[in-house]
Write a structure and sequence with these properties.
Elements: H1 2-6, E1 12-17, E2 37-38, E3 41-42, H2 43-53, E4 58-63, H3 69-72, H4 78-86, H5 90-102, E5 104-109, H6 116-121, E6 133-137, E7 141-144, H7 148-159, E8 162-168, E9 178-184, E10 190-198, E11 209-218, H8 220-225, H9 238-247, E12 252-256, E13 260-263, H10 267-279, H11 285-297
Parallel strand pairs: 1-4, 1-6, 4-5, 8-12
Antiparallel strand pairs: 2-3, 6-11, 7-13, 8-11, 9-10, 10-12
The structure holds 1-O-phosphono-alpha-D-glucopyranose (G1P).
1-O-phosphono-alpha-D-glucopyranose binds at residues 116, 138, 141, 177-178, 198, 210-213, 237-239.
Length: 298
């Protein structure tokens, strides 16, 4: 990834993973949704690997009491590794060692579910003076192909301030998202943001550009997060802190991502992602394809 080294603007990535996962009940009584496997790999490893590829060397996972297994997943497993080594299972050993080797993982705890903005704010004590900007990756969103964070870094290097990833979404489907009020720049995929609103009704949406789970935020976001009041759904919204920064003159831009996306936050979207990844898997793809064609044909 050449872009990562040239325009590196962050070293710390924050992944909010404190939610109850109600849409995956009853499974989430015992297993956090971030650990559900897309083929054989938990969604949170895919997201952590995207952050590492974009140049992050530290991941702060914001989680809630009882969901420590999300963080434990990134720790070494010496007994398991020894057993696999003894049996000569080197491919499995590589898989087991992959997540702990990606980056340094730290934990921050969100005690109460007060919203995405509140969750991100819990990571502030983990930051150092060097963290002038941080990346935030929502683990429900898979943005494909990976690489949008590198483009966002290049935009911060050029324009300063904060940069968010956006998808162009049909107006009728816009209300579950944070939506941007934008104007053009000299790059058709980079737009300047003049306002942002969380979950508007389609008729109130300022554009069809919606926030899609990847944020490169100037450190000033933490001060803004301390000053917002509950917004959409009675929660402290990250969107409202971004809107406050814009109002106070901070530059905010979006990179419009024209690729694919999966929503791992509900069983329907999760299954689609699993099938998509499995079809590309050399081991499971071919027989799944045949079975699916047959199943749909009948
Ligand atoms: C969150 C954000 C929203 C964003 C969305 C992307 O909403 O608040 O601005 O567009 O993620 O997936 P949530 O999906 O948590 O309701």
């Amino acid at each position: 990834m050449t872009g990562a080294a040239e325009n590196q603007t962050f070293r710390t990535a924050i992944v909010p993973a404190a939610g109850l996962g109600t849409r995956f009940l009853p499974t989430t009584k015992a297993v956090p949704k971030e650990l559900l496997p897309v083929v054989d790999t938990p969604g949170i490893e895919i997201v952590a690997s995207e952050a590492a590829q974009a140049g992050a060397n530290r991941l702060v996972i914001v989680t809630s009491p009882g969901k420590e297994s999300v963080v434990n997943y990134f720790q070494d497993a010496p007994e398991l590794e020894e057993a696999l080594e003894r049996k000569g299972k080197s491919k499995l050993l590589d898989k087991v060692r992959r997540a702990p080797a990606l980056l340094d993982v730290e934990v921050a705890i969100q005690k109460e579910a007060l919203g995405l903005g509140h969750a991100v704010a819990q990571a502030e004590p983990n930051l150092t003076d060097e963290d002038e900007a941080v990346a935030v990756l929502l683990p429900d969103d898979l943005v494909l192909p990976a690489g949008v964070l590198e483009r966002m870094s290049a935009v911060r290097a050029r324009h300063g301030g904060s940069v968010l990833c956006a998808f162009d979404i049909p107006k009728a489907e816009i209300s579950p998202y944070g939506v941007f009020d934008v104007s053009e720049t000299d790059d058709p995929d980079v737009k300047q943001v003049h306002g942002m609103v969380e979950k508007p009704a389609p008729e109130d949406a300022p554009s069809t550009f919606a926030a899609a789970g990847r944020y490169l935020l100037d450190r000033a976001i933490f001060d803004a997060l301390g000053r917002i009041t509950p917004g959409s759904g009675g929660e402290l919204q990250l969107t409202d802190a971004v809107a406050l920064l814009i109002k106070e003159g901070h530059p905010v831009h979006i990179v419009v991502h024209r690729g694919g996306r999966h929503d791992l936050g509900n069983p329907g979207g999760f299954l689609r992602a699993a099938v998509d990844f499995a079809l590309d898997d050399p081991e499971y793809g071919p027989s799944l394809r045949t079975w699916l064609a047959d199943r749909i044909g009948n």
